[in-house]
Structures are given as structure tokens and as C-alpha cells.
């Protein structure tokens, strides 16, 4: 369901630092934004990202992850209550079940710090540096029931220099993550 502004009601799910959330909030405040962030949910009570939500006066909730079913049922209720049309995972460290994805029935996006399908899962920068890859990057994709495997919406490369460390690569990739997440949302929402 859309609000009269025509913007998609968006929920952002986080677990920690929240720098992608911050970039999405920044985008959502631009005139041309296609989304309105109506809800931020964290499975981690002390996620720094919750501070950004509070500062921007965005409705936010901590949902304890005691088990997946209880977490997802609570989340679904909140999403319904807030008429959420789109979910953006932004450093959300839990895997959503196929049943949740079916029940929500609207797009769910995720941002991943590698050039998918390479390096699904964790420690992507470490693996890229260890393997002496020439490139890494970030990918925004649709979430399906398989980890980091849904349809790719947008991907951007960065060069890995011989002087790069895991830390410096992470920094470089994060910078492009902040740029491509809003762009991927625009691509998704204008592709219907
Ligand atoms: C990002 O690298 C994102 O790609 C990955 O987790 C990290 C979250 O960072 N899924 P932040 O919380 O958005 O700063």
C-alpha cells in the first residue's frame, strides 16, 4: 500500500553500526526520494544505527531474537502496522526464512560487500585480500530463501591495490555501498 505522497513505505533492518541506514536516511530526505523510511528494526539492542533513527525521529524498535519464528512473527506485525512496502536489509545479521519472505510478499533488498555471486556469507574482504583478487565491490540484490543469492539489482566494482589491507578494502567498499544502495532502490522501484 502506498501513502498519498507516492513514496514507498520502507523498513530498514539493522544489527550494528548503521552506516548504510544513515545513507538511506539521507537519500529518503531528498526531494526526489522514492521511499519514506517509516520503521527501523534492530535485533541488537545497542546497535549504533538506532541512534541515527532516533536522531531523525524515525519510528524504531528492538526485537529480541530468541528464536526465528518469534522474531519474524513480531516483525511481520510491525511491518503490517506500519504499512511497509519495501524492506531494506542494511547490515542485518540474521537470515530471514522462506516462510517470512512469502508472508511479507513484497520486495526485500540486501546489500552485500562483495561482487556476488563471489563470496557469499561473511568475511568477504578477508577472502578477497587472501586470494589476491584484483577487484572487489558491493552488490544490492533481492532477498530470497538462499543466502546472498537473489536477483542482482546493482553492483559496483572497486580496484584492490597491492597495498590494500582488509581494513582499507572495507573502507573503500563501504563508501560505494552508500552510493549504490539508494541507486538500487531507484532502479527497483522504477523497473515495474
Ligand atoms: C556492510 O558492509 C553491508 O554490506 C553488510 O554489513 C555491513 C553493514 O555496515 N551487509 P553498516 O551497519 O551499514 O555500517
Q: What's the SSE blueprint?
A:
Blueprint: E1 8-14, H1 19-28, E2 35-42, H2 49-55, E3 60-62, H3 68-81, E4 86-89, H4 98-104, E5 108-112, H5 124-130, E6 135-142, E7 152-159, H6 166-189
Parallel strand pairs: 1-2, 1-4, 2-3, 4-5
Antiparallel strand pairs: 5-6, 6-7
Helix pairs in contact: 1-6, 5-6
Bound molecules: 5-O-phosphono-beta-D-ribofuranosylamine.
Describe what is shown at a glance.
By secondary structure, the chain is an alpha/beta fold. It contains six helices and seven strands.
Give a verbal description of the structure.
The longest helix is centred in the last third of the chain and has 24 residues. The two termini are 15 Å apart. This protein has a seven-stranded mixed sheet with strand order 3-2-1-4-5-6-7, with helices on one face. It is globular and about 50 Å long. Helices cover 36% and strands 22% of the residues. The protein has two domains: 106 residues, Formyl transferase, N-terminal domain (Rossmann fold, 3-Layer(aba) Sandwich); 82 residues, Rossmann fold (3-Layer(aba) Sandwich), CATH 3.40.50. The protein is α/β, with parallel strands linked by helices and 192 residues long. Helix 5 packs across helix 6. Bound molecules: 5-O-phosphono-beta-D-ribofuranosylamine (GRF).
Any descriptors?
Rossmann fold, 6 helices, binds 5-O-phosphono-beta-D-ribofuranosylamine, 192 residues
Number of strands: 7
Bound molecules: 5-O-phosphono-beta-D-ribofuranosylamine
- CATH topology value of the largest domain: Rossmann fold
Whole-number count of domains: 2
Low-confidence stretches: none
Distance linking N and C termini: 15 Å
> What number is the mean pLDDT?
96
Q: What fraction, in percent, of the residue positions are helical?
A: 25-40%
Q: How much of the residues is beta strand, in percent?
A: 15-25%
The strand line-up of the biggest sheet is: 3-2-1-4-5-6-7
**Main sheet summary:** 7 strands, mixed
Let me know the CATH homologous superfamily of the largest domain: Formyl transferase, N-terminal domain
| N-to-C order of helices and strands | EHEHEHEHEHEEH
Please identify the top-level CATH class of the largest domain: Alpha Beta
Indicate the structural class: alpha/beta
* CATH architect. name of the largest domain: 3-Layer(aba) Sandwich
Number of helices: 6
Shape: globular
Amino acid at each position: 500500500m502506498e501513502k498519498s505522497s507516492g513514496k514507498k513505505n520502507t523498513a530498514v533492518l539493522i544489527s550494528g553500526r548503521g552506516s548504510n541506514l544513515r545513507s538511506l536516511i539521507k537519500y529518503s530526505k531528498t526531494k526526489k526520494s522514492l521511499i519514506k523510511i517509516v520503521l527501523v528494526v534492530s535485533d541488537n539492542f545497542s546497535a549504533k544505527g538506532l541512534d541515527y533513527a532516533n536522531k531523525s525521529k524515525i519510528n524504531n524498535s528492538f526485537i529480541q531474537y530468541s528464536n526465528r519464528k518469534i522474531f519474524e512473527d513480531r516483525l511481520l506485525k510491525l511491518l503490517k502496522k506500519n504499512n511497509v512496502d519495501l524492506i531494506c536489509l542494511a547490515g542485518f545479521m540474521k537470515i530471514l526464512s522462506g516462510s517470512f519472505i512469502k508472508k511479507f510478499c513484497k520486495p526485500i533488498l540486501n546489500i552485500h560487500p562483495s561482487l556476488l555471486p563471489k563470496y557469499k556469507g561473511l568475511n568477504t574482504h578477508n577472502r578477497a585480500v587472501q586470494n589476491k583478487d584484483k577487484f572487489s565491490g558491493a552488490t544490492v540484490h533481492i532477498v530470497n530463501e538462499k543466502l546472498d543469492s537473489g536477483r542482482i539489482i546493482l553492483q559496483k566494482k572497486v580496484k584492490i591495490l597491492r597495498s590494500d589491507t582488509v581494513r582499507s578494502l572495507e573502507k573503500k567498499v563501504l563508501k560505494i555501498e552508500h552510493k549504490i544502495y539508494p541507486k538500487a532502490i531507484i532502479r527497483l522501484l522504477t523497473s515495474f
